[in-house]
Structure formats: C-alpha cells, structure tokens
Specification:
This protein has a 7-stranded mixed beta sheet. Strand 5 and strand 6 form a beta hairpin. It is of the alpha/beta class. It contains 3 helices and 7 strands; from the N terminus they run E-E-H-H-E-H-E-E-E-E. The chain is globular and about 40 Å long. The longest helix is centred in the N-terminal third of the chain and has 12 residues.
Length: 136
C-alpha cells in the first residue's frame, strides 16, 4: 500500500488479523528479516500495519511469540472498529509496549507516540468535567 502525504511517499505492508490467523503472527515474527531484504533490494524501509478488530487479542497473541515482537519499530496495529477515514492514517495507528501499554502514533514520521491505556486497565486518564455520582 502506498500513501502520499505532502509529496512524501509512505509505503506499508498491510495484513488483516480479523479471525486470529496464525499466518499473520508468523509474518509479524519474520518482519525484521523480510524488511531487511526489502531494504537491501529497494533501498528504503517499509512499515507493517496489522488491521484488527480486537487490539487486546492481538496483543495477547503477539506475547506468545516473545518479547522481541512487542515494541518492535515499524510494526503498527490499526483498530478497524475505531478507524477514522477523515484523518491521516497515522492517527489511526497504535503500537504495543512490553507490559501491555497501548500507544497511539502522533506524528507523520511515526517517531512520536502517546500513551493511551494499558491492556486490562481501561480506566480513563486525564479526566475533565464532572463524574456522575461523585459529591464534593
């Protein structure tokens, strides 16, 4: 998949992990090797996007492959349930940390990310406004 942002071409491999396909996990596992071959052949990096309808299941399944997979650069998850086609693609991308952290990507070059929540702990952070049922 190729995307053009302000004249800069961005390339991605896009894979769909909707039914917990084992083959997708194997492609993630061998992503570093394959992207090295791609870079040798074409002289540029390519990113991997895994489209899923359940970020939490994807995270748990990736942990089965070991810690070398989580936190890997240039591997992103896209939540198809919350996909917003009105914003640039990077706004829809997430990465996982080693301890279950979910980060959203905040820059076009994918170098900046923002903590969203930790898998299994989805309480709101930085709440604003009133919370029902709380008395002063």
């Amino acid at each position: 998949m190729w995307l053009n942002f302000s004249g800069a071409l961005q390339e991605y491999f896009l894979d769909f992990y909707l039914d917990r396909e084992l083959s997708v996990l194997h492609r993630v596992e061998f992503y570093n090797r394959n992207t090295t071959l791609y870079k040798e052949k074409f002289g540029r990096d390519i990113r991997l996007i895994i489209a899923t309808n359940d970020l939490e299941s994807l995270y748990y399944d990736l942990t089965l492959l070991g810690n070398k997979i989580l936190g890997q650069t240039n591997v992103f998850a896209l939540d198809v349930k919350n996909f917003n086609p009105k914003v640039e693609l990077y706004h829809n991308l997430y990465t996982f940390g080693l301890e279950g952290e979910v980060f959203s990507i905040t820059s076009r070059d994918h170098s900046r990310r923002e903590f969203k929540y930790k898998i299994g702990q989805k309480e709101l952070r930085n709440k604003k406004g009133r919370v029902k049922g709380v008395k002063r």
